[in-house]
């Protein structure tokens, strides 16, 4: 059987769009650091070519032999690397804002967490297929089965949210874990408890950091007038935040989207990238794209993502092997949540989490990781029922 060609070409199409906008949106950074005009374009182009080659090469492998090796290889190696990053010398680790997120290699840096997510999803798929079934169980029995996973996730929270100060990745992994557990056979009651526990954990993590508290206040200050208008005055006065810090980046993001209107300012003609949004080619890439190609261009991207996710979930639903089914589901969820949280964040619907947009954001780690994950799903697609 052959791999899903449509999924492959959808992925390549999104990568091409990301490469094009790495040239268009990086102009201010190029001028600020006196880089070559094509600095980011060439790097993203090379990474995209490597990613496409890896995606194609992995898709050619037999999942019965190689999926477990790739999945556990990523899970174990990236867990060890993330655990060791704080004892490695500064010559090997890139530090930003007090957090060590990147391993420095000759000519480039890699973020282990991007590859860890793939390994974690495979570990969950492999383990859930052995530990969880669809038989009816008491809630206490479900808690006993899932307690080791919750303990493991506490370690992950420490490694990623605490040591790397990256709550966004933890949110994506938590949502993915809960939904994968539901599809593996846990009850809806446990699903509800899982959502509640994840929410409480997120609140605790937020209130343990002054930086995160300020970010939440900034976000809430930008939307509170709209939300609190539906509440009685007594409740609204309690929930209102005075003197909230100005949501500088989100404000410019919304301006970029507004300027784009229906058809956009034109490719390369956007102005919000000229110093107003410093991360426009990375975290705010969708806002930059919206300004230059407008609602029509963003709609095309949403359609491409929708078809891509449809193909992934279709492969998952048609997989008779439970590991393949859960793994493909998990990869689809990772891509879905990353895209949704980022797109909601630039519209001020949720706080900004600093998540890369799969395929589109500038950055070698996110591009290579998503290509590896798609390659693994393509590998699985050769075994699904047609």
UniProtKB/TrEMBL annotation:
Localization in the cell: Membrane
Record EC number: 2.4.99.28
GO biological process, one term: regulation of cell shape
Top-level taxon of origin: Bacteria
Catalytic activity as recorded in UniProt: [GlcNAc-(1->4)-Mur2Ac(oyl-L-Ala-gamma-D-Glu-L-Lys-D-Ala-D-Ala)](n)-di-trans,octa-cis-undecaprenyl diphosphate + beta-D-GlcNAc-(1->4)-Mur2Ac(oyl-L-Ala-gamma-D-Glu-L-Lys-D-Ala-D-Ala)-di-trans,octa-cis-undecaprenyl diphosphate = [GlcNAc-(1->4)-Mur2Ac(oyl-L-Ala-gamma-D-Glu-L-Lys-D-Ala-D-Ala)](n+1)-di-trans,octa-cis-undecaprenyl diphosphate + di-trans,octa-cis-undecaprenyl diphosphate + H(+)
Key words, A-Z: Cell cycle, Cell division, Cell shape, Glycosyltransferase, Membrane, Peptidoglycan synthesis, Transferase, Transmembrane, Transmembrane helix
GO cellular component terms given for this protein: cell division site; plasma membrane
Cell cycle found in the keyword field: yes
Database matches in InterPro entries: FtsW/RodA
Membrane topology according to the record: Multi-pass membrane protein
Pfam family, one: FTSW_RODA_SPOVE
Transmembrane segments: 7-28, 40-59, 66-88, 108-125, 145-161, 167-183, 190-209, 293-313, 325-347, 359-380
Listed GO MF terms: lipid-linked peptidoglycan transporter activity; peptidoglycan glycosyltransferase activity
Family named by the database record: Belongs to the SEDS family. FtsW subfamily.
Protein name as it appears in the record: Probable peptidoglycan glycosyltransferase FtsW
Annotated source species: Campylobacter pinnipediorum subsp. caledonicus
